[in-house]
């Protein structure tokens, strides 16, 4: 078999790469090889178990690929002959290619815990069949322990409590969501979890998993007939390493255009190395939104530099919802800025997301912005409030990536409406920028 563009992996990174390649090079044949018959929406996995109650409702349709003349092969690539530019598949023989894209994703981290291989222990895997089995186990379980208090662990806890499960979440760090938010925002998430009867254990480590419980390093025994491991993931670079591509501990090494150490091979998504937007240091961030951005760049530049938009680094724009509180972060949090040695100022504001605040379903909104002390350049943003947080944090990401200063941001023209936004006299993020400006010029 022969194709021009071969993509290994059919998740969001693989899909967007294929579509970008067809958009920029419509004459080229594009083939995706993936192991799964169907592909799950990664960020939607926790909602399978509460809100959706179905794996099928969280699957990506192949229609968009088929309609764009992208060929899908359900198989596994076992090796690649770089000299001949051939991929060796398990069941479909050799596939010749001109350009090869690794979109092999990530695999769950298996922590060294006694009892980790018990039948009542599950991971967060992007495999529909595996998730269906987990859904059956969840339905039969009463007490569930979640090891890991990052986004996925917190979202799973919030979903499982909705269906009446007794949930405990165990996190080694001082707070849940600790690597993504400063303490005050983490505490909001914890308070919301506890309000909804989720047991939260922080600064805690699981040392053993039993059939009916998990044992903490403190000696505490937490009842659990199902344990979910959500301690993070690592790049799936096994094949890339096998064929001799340059790989670091954080993924396949790529340049600004997602090109690997081989001129005709690209890597995108979780399997590709990430570098911080500000420091260019390696940054282990795995988000579908980042994968999609990388995929658009790779697809556009497979044969020539069509899109001269260098991928400057991973900014890290996060959003989640816990109970009734939405949380968003973009760029650096204060803890990170301090660790990296930035001289910064903090701007804060607190208001309501509608005006007047007496309107039904009005939520408080809390904003924390970071700017450099010299020049007032945007470093980061954190927001908590209602559902509008998801879009507001995207605006913050745009401002950071575009090099906005506090002065420029504070004078932006905005639109407002009583049912949709804070009052024009007190726009949440602009007020926080004004607060930072006072400190910059003081």
Commentary on this structure:
The structure is a single chain. The chain is of the alpha/beta class. The protein folds into 3 domains: about 5-50 and about 60-105 and about 235-300, 3-Layer(bba) Sandwich (FAD/NAD(P)-binding domain); about 120-230, FAD/NAD(P)-binding domain; about 325-440, Enolase-like, domain 1 (2-Layer Sandwich), CATH 3.30.390.30. It is about 25% helix and about 25% strand. It contains 11 helices and 27 strands. The protein has helices at about 10-25, 65, 130-140, 150-160, 185-195, 240, 290-300, 335-340, 390-400, 405-410, 430-440, and strands at about 5-10, 30-35, 40, 60, 70-75, 75-80, 85-90, 95, 100, 105-110, 120-125, 145, 165-170, 200, 205-210, 215, 220-225, 225-230, 235, 245-250, 250, 265, 315-320, 325-330, 345-350, 365-370, 380-385. β13 (about 165-170), α5 and β14 form a beta-alpha-beta unit. It starts with a strand and ends with a helix.
């Amino acid at each position: 078999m022969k194709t021009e563009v071969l993509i290994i992996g059919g998740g969001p990174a693989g899909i967007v790469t294929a579509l970008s390649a067809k958009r920029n090079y419509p004459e080229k044949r594009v083939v995706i090889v993936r192991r799964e018959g169907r592909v799950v929406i990664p960020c939607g996995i926790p909602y399978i178990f509460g809100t959706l109650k179905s794996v099928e409702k969280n699957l990506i349709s192949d229609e968009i690929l088929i309609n764009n003349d992208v060929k899908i092969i359900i198989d596994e690539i076992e090796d690649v002959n770089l000299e001949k530019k051939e991929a060796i598949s398990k069941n479909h023989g050799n596939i010749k290619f001109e350009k090869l894209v690794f979109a092999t994703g990530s695999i769950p981290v298996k922590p060294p815990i006694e009892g980790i291989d018990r039948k009542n222990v599950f991971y967060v895997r992007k495999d529909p069949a595996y998730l269906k089995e987990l859904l059956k186990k969840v339905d039969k379980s009463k007490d569930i322990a979640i090891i890991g208090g990052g986004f996925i662990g917190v979202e799973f806890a919030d979903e499982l409590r909705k269906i009446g499960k007794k949930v405990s979440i165990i996190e080694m760090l001082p707070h849940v969501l600790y690597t993504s938010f400063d303490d005050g925002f983490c505490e909001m998430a914890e308070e919301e979890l506890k309000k909804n009867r989720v047991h939260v254990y922080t600064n805690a480590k699981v040392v053993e998993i039993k059939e009916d419980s998990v044992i903490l390093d403190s000696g505490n025994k937490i009842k659990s007939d199902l344990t979910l491991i959500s301690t993070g993931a690592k790049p799936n670079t096994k094949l890339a390493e096998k064929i001799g591509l340059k790989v670091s501990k954080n993924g396949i090494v790529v340049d600004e255009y997602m090109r690997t150490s081989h001129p005709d091979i690209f890597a995108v998504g979780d399997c590709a190395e990430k570098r911080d937007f500000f420091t260019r240091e390696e940054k282990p961030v795995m988000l579908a939104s980042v994968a999609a951005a990388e995929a658009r760049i790779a697809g556009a530049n497979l044969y020539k530099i069509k899109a001269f938009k260098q991928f400057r680094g991973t900014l890290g724009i996060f959003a989640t919802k816990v109970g009734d509180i939405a949380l968003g972060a973009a760029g650096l949090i204060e803890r990170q800025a301090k660790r990296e040695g930035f001289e910064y100022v903090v701007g804060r504001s607190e208001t309501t997301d509608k005006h007047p605040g007496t309107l039904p379903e009005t939520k408080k909104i809390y904003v924390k912005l970071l700017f450099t002390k010299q020049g007032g350049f945007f470093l980061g943003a954190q927001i908590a409030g209602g559902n509008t947080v998801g879009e507001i944090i995207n605006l913050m990401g745009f401002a950071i990536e575009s090099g906005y200063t506090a002065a420029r941001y504070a004078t932006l023209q905005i639109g407002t409406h009583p049912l949709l936004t804070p009052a024009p006299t007190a726009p949440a993020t602009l007020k926080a920028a004004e607060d930072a400006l006072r400190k910059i010029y003081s």
